[in-house]
Structure formats: C-alpha cells, structure tokens
Design brief:
The chain is α/β, with parallel strands linked by helices and about 260 residues long. Helix content is about 40%, strand content about 20%. The chain contains eight helices and twelve strands.
Length: about 260
C-alpha cells in the first residue's frame, strides 16, 4: 500500500511516529532531579527563633562573625522532570542535573526519605559534638550540647556544627573569634575522630554561600575541582581534610600567621 504514495506522502507517513517519539521524549518524565543553591544558616546564631547551638555545663563565649552551613535544594522524588528541563539545566550555572537515585534512594517513599535524612542529621550532630569536645579535651559527661536546625536533613553540616561548638567554647584558643569576624561558609561531614568527608553539590553550595555574604568557603579537599568549576567571584576556597586542619586554617586567616591551604 505504501508503494502507491508519492514520495512526499511516504515521508510524511514515516515522520508521524518520529514526531510522536520526539514529543514523548521532551515531555515524558525522566529519572533525574534538578538541584539549585539552597538555604544557608549561621550555626552561631538562631534558626527560626531558636539558637542553633545551645551548650550547658560549661562557660560559653560571645561570638562575632558567622559560620554558615550550606545546602542544595532538589526537586522531589515525585516531581516530573522532562527532557526540556534537563537540557535547560544542563546549560545553566545555578542548576544541575542529578540522577534521582543519587538524591533519593530508589524505592523509598517521601516519608522514608525524610526519616532517613533526619536520622543522618542526628548522627551528624552527635559526631560533631563528640569531635568538638574531643578536640578541646572536654568531657561529654559534664557538658551537654543541643543542636537544632529546622527543615534541613543529611550529614553535610557536620563540619560547621563542630566549628560552631568550638567557637562558642574556646574561639581560636587565644581569646579571639574562630571566624576572625568574617562570614565563613562551608560543607563537609565529620566523624567522631575529626575526619572531614565529601558531600556533593559543592558547586551549588559555593553559590549559596556567596549569595549570603560569605568570603571564605571550607570545602572537603577531595571536592576542590568541583568547587572551582563554578566558583563565584569574591569567594576563597580553603580545602580541609581534618577538623584540626580546618581550625588551623581559620586561625591562620585571622592572625595572618601560618599557611592557609588553597585548591
């Protein structure tokens, strides 16, 4: 039957399913999430009217400057992401495309994901408290640290929580602020022993940090190249591998003495 059509008619017949396939590809949901710079929060201050860090059983000090933890915001596990969305984000500097399974474990419901993120945040807070007290050679039998940060989950604020506890208890060790009065931002997990771990999304987190006034960004050393890829003007990267290294870098920035690592 096709042989009786003229050539233009035959091409039109073939084109119909091709157009349908393209339309389906453009508008069909894809297994990706779109991410963008998220909120930042000063762990030395308040979040939604409540101090982020509360310490009892030890004398605390007044602090200046800021230590801002950073986040990314990703589309939800049930959000429709089309090819058009992916292509648009691919060419944007303030958005990125991530495999959905890397953001939300496959098969988990929204409630399960939220519970998982809350559990990771709690583990991160416990590790941050232990790492800070161990660094200062203080006993957790006498000192109680409470950390509260609303609407944020996951482990990536661990390093900043730890530095915030140290700043409130000891500062730079010589009576000054660990921040040197600056707005310092950063990201990174923390272990009980003070090891800083990679987290992902750092290129977006640096943008969130600069947007909210940071001039210095603490980044896990393993993620230097990612952090440099879209680094905002006016933001200095300081790579860290350990809590001790992070503290020394901040003290060197404040005092002007000693090396400050760079990516």
């Amino acid at each position: 039957m096709l042989s009786r059509l003229t050539r233009p008619q035959a091409l039109a017949v073939y084109a119909l399913p091709v157009v349908a396939l393209i339309a389906t590809a453009v508008f069909a949901p894809l297994p990706f999430s779109l991410a963008q710079p998220g909120l930042t929060a000063n762990v030395l201050g308040e979040n939604q009217g409540t101090p982020v860090i509360t310490i009892s059983g030890a004398k605390t000090r007044a602090t200046s400057g800021e230590l801002r933890m950073t986040t990314i915001e990703a589309t939800g596990p049930d959000t429709h992401v089309s090819l058009e969305d992916v292509v648009s984000a691919w060419f944007a500097t303030d958005r990125t495309v991530l495999p959905r399974d890397s953001v939300y474990p496959s098969g988990d419901s929204t409630q399960q994901i939220e519970e998982h993120n809350r559990a990771q945040m709690k583990e991160s807070q416990d590790a941050a408290t232990q790492a800070a007290l161990d660094y200062l050679h203080l006993s957790d039998n006498k000192i109680k640290v409470t950390l509260k940060l609303a609407d944020v989950g996951g482990p990536s604020a661990g390093l900043l929580f730890t530095l915030g506890i140290i700043d409130k208890l000891d500062g730079n060790g010589s009576g000054g602020d660990l921040t040197g009065g600056r707005t310092i931002a950063g990201t990174g997990t923390i272990s009980d022993s003070g090891t800083v771990g990679a987290v992902g999304g750092v290129a977006l987190k640096t943008q969130a940090a600069r947007r909210d006034g940071a001039t210095v960004f603490l980044v896990p050393r393993a993620e230097c190249s990612d952090a440099k890829s879209e680094l905002p003007k006016g933001l200095r990267l300081v790579p860290v591998k350990t809590l001790d290294g992070a503290v020394k870098a901040l003290v060197s920035l404040e005092t002007g003495k000693g090396p400050v690592p760079s990516c």
